[in-house]
């Protein structure tokens, strides 16, 4: 039986992969696939903090679906319900509160980063990102409703800050950064999203909700696995592979430069997706489309 991995061993693996002090890194992690750890998610988060140091920043997706009226999760859960049952289900749905609403399906590591002292979270009710570290405020401070993961979102700030993407025990299907490449075409396909956000409390202290219906880009991750396989074969101008691959703990890890990878994704989408969105998709990594 494999002994639980320590944070020190994880840190060694992360540094061997190429993560450095001062890095800004967006992390996607499956705790189950990186092997047994001494203290669960805390072991991985401690290793990440040690690897990027006091000048670095850790970013995680903290998406939510429980407050959505237009996500696949909502449609799956309400399938076969009567109108009355649907009304009751909707009445019990929470409104998104960036300070308190847990993420949906993002994993224990993401949740631990979200709840760390000093961590900040962007305000989007469906595709928020949480960050801890020196650049946390810069990354999370602006996230408009009609821009889930595009050029006015935290992903764009990560792109500009030359962040790196770390996939720990997960495949490219989970690579949120690729969504930024979907905003490359002049007129990407759009759709309507619908969700609840937390509003001001009544005088009696009872929480209220507000409904938000808006139009935004129709995000599609169905071909991210194919894009990732292609990206792993690409090399930089100096002949190095764009994607660094190695073992961290008991799982496969990949480290890639966000800006260069997104630029390559834009070109790949142009070739492999037809005009108007191509392989129309209806989900975002792990949880389905944001709304």
UniProtKB/TrEMBL annotation:
The keyword Transferase applies. PANTHER family: AMINOGLYCOSIDE N3-ACETYLTRANSFERASE (PTHR11104), SPBETA PROPHAGE-DERIVED AMINOGLYCOSIDE N(3')-ACETYLTRANSFERASE-LIKE PROTEIN YOKD (PTHR11104:SF0). SUPFAM superfamilies: TTHA0583/YokD-like. Belongs to the antibiotic N-acetyltransferase family. Keywords: Acyltransferase, Transferase. It comes from Streptomyces osmaniensis. InterPro entries: Amioglycoside_AcTrfase, Antibiotic_NAT-like. It holds the Pfam family Antibiotic_NAT. This is AAC(3) family N-acetyltransferase. Coiled coil: none annotated.
């Amino acid at each position: 039986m494999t002994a639980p991995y320590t944070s020190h061993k994880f840190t060694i693996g992360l540094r061997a992969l190429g993560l450095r002090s001062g890095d800004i890194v967006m992390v996607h992690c499956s705790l189950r696939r990186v092997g047994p750890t001494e203290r669960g998610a805390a072991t991985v988060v401690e290793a990440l903090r040690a690897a990027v140091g006091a000048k670095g920043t850790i970013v995680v997706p903290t998406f939510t679906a429980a407050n959505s009226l237009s996500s696949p999760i909502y449609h799956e859960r309400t399938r076969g319900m009567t109108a009355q049952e649907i009304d009751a289900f909707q009445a019990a749905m929470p409104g998104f509160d960036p300070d308190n609403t847990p993420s949906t399906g993002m994993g224990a590591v993401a949740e631990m980063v979200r709840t760390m002292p000093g961590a900040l979270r962007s305000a989007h009710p469906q595709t928020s990102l949480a960050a801890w570290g020196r650049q946390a405020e810069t990354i999370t401070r602006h996230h408009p409703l009609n821009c889930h993961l595009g050029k006015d979102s935290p992903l764009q700030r990560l792109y500009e800050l030359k962040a790196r993407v770390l996939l720990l025990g997960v495949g490219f299907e989970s690579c949120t950064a690729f969504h930024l490449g979907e905003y490359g075409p002049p007129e990407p396909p759009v759709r309507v999203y619908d969700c609840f956000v937390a509003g001001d409390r009544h005088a009696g202290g009872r929480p209220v909700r507000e409904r938000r219906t808006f139009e935004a880009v129709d995000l599609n991750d169905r071909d991210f696995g194919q894009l990732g396989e292609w990206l792993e074969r690409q090399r930089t101008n100096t002949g190095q592979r764009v994607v660094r691959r190695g073992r961290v703990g008991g799982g496969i890890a990949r480290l890639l430069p966000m800006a260069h990878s997104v630029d390559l994704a834009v070109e790949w989408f142009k070739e492999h997706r037809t005009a108007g969105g191509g392989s129309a998709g209806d989900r975002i990594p792990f949880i389905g489309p944001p709304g």
